[in-house]
Amino acid sequence: MDKLIINGGRPLQGKVRISGAKNASLAILCATIMAGDEVVLENIPDISDVRVVIEIIKHIGSEVTWLSSSSLRIMAPAVISADPPCDLVKKLRASNLLLGPMLARFGYARVSLPGGCNIGVRPMDLHFKGLAGMGAQINLDGGFAVGKCTNRLKGARIYLDFPSVGATENIMMAACLAEGQTVLENVAKEPEIVDLANFLNCLGAKVRGAGTDVIKVEGVSELGGCVRYAVIPDRIESGTFMVAAAATRGHLVLEHVIPLHVEPICAKLREAGVQVYEDDDRLTVNATGELHPVDIKTMPYPGFPTDMQSQMMALLSTIKGTSIIIENIFENRFQIADELKRMGAHIKVEGRMAVVEGVPCLCGTNIKATDLRAGAALVIAALMAQGQTEIYNTHFIDRGYHLLEEKLTKLGVEIKRGQA
Ligand SMILES: CC(=O)N[C@H]1[C@@H](OP(=O)(O)OP(=O)(O)OC[C@H]2O[C@@H](n3ccc(=O)[nH]c3=O)[C@H](O)[C@@H]2O)O[C@H](CO)[C@@H](O)[C@@H]1O
Ligand SMILES: C=C(OP(=O)(O)O)C(=O)O
């Protein structure tokens, strides 16, 4: 097991290039199993979640080759050679996105219920309801979701009770190969949904409306390949660096960003007194002035992302005054508060609300990541803290941050990896 050792107290200074989006890459990798010909993907981050999904699709028969450090060539199988292996599926959440594509292409899927970070209950009822609405039989069997459809899936009108990202993606993918039209209402509007829809359309799918509340899919009998598809930049990695710059009262230029995707984060940082400037695909963050407390409510996109909530909590823990955070998406995303308190933060958690009283500074100590974004938040806390911090459970952080130590080192941070 690894640990990260960080000596804090220096402002982040310089330029950082943002990598491809984890959540878009994972969904697109699952979608590749529906492709009838070769697919080349670019801007794929080489992070552990991506490596695991690649192993899973290879196991079911896909041929996958790294063409460079961020591009992949994939050829999906005509028939699946094995079920997705349970031990790999359980390593992450996004493996639940195999169900829709496998059912649509092969008429059968036996996928273990997914794992991933312990940030809430995370049921799959909306996925199952949508796929069943298209004619699939879905059963739960000893921790596995087993889906079957004897004939082609049928287009249907499906209303999601909640705009779930994963359910929108699974049903949208399955609808691409269904017979007739699918109308999906109250869907998630996250940029990763739009990226996935764009990729599917590159394969010859007919998806319209991604990024709005209603997605319409005209099913086609087969999908083709794609000569080149570049995944969008990671808005959560962007947000994490922006918050890290603010927390260390630094000055940072982020390159290869889509500013629109990080607008909810920019808006909150500006409200806190951070200067944020946009220029094409670059963002400049300057936090050399006084900062103010802010209140945050996590919401589906374009609201404030739950995946940035922990990082903001770390930042707010050293801003004088009271900030209130309401977590509306995942009930278990305040575990980070206990670790921040070990560093001297004053945070009171009551159900879905956290009250953060800013303290003048945090102190370095030994702390452990409880999930991916909590890990990112602890890195931010360590960057601000006086003295040395050791962060354990780094495997959570490795799920989602490409070249984190290298990027931070270039920005002036003293960071190294050691054995825990
Ligand atoms: C791999 C990936 O893309 N992960 C992202 C995805 O997760 P994920 O796709 O799991 O998140 P969802 O949008 O589905 O979950 C949002 C809420 O809906 C609930 N729900 C979801 C499905 C369902 O069938 N029933 C149900 O009740 C969940 O428990 C949660 O409370 O979106 C989340 C919300 O933006 C992000 O935090 C994750 O980083
Ligand atoms: C919650 C996250 O990911 P996952 O859905 O893969 O657990 C995340 O990226 O913060």
UniProtKB/TrEMBL annotation:
Phosphoenolpyruvate binds at K22, N23. It is an enzyme of class 2 (transferase). UDP-N-acetyl-alpha-D-glucosamine binds at R93, R122, P123, M124, D125, L126, D307, I329. One of its GO terms (biological process) is cell wall organization. It catalyses: phosphoenolpyruvate + UDP-N-acetyl-alpha-D-glucosamine = UDP-N-acetyl-3-O-(1-carboxyvinyl)-alpha-D-glucosamine + phosphate. It comes from the Bacteria. It is found in: Cytoplasm. Pathway: Cell wall biogenesis; peptidoglycan biosynthesis. The active site is at C117 (proton donor). Residues 7-408 form the Enolpyruvate transferase domain. GO terms for molecular function: UDP-N-acetylglucosamine 1-carboxyvinyltransferase activity. It holds the Pfam family EPSP_synthase. This is UDP-N-acetylglucosamine 1-carboxyvinyltransferase. It comes from Desulfoscipio gibsoniae DSM 7213. The gene is murA.
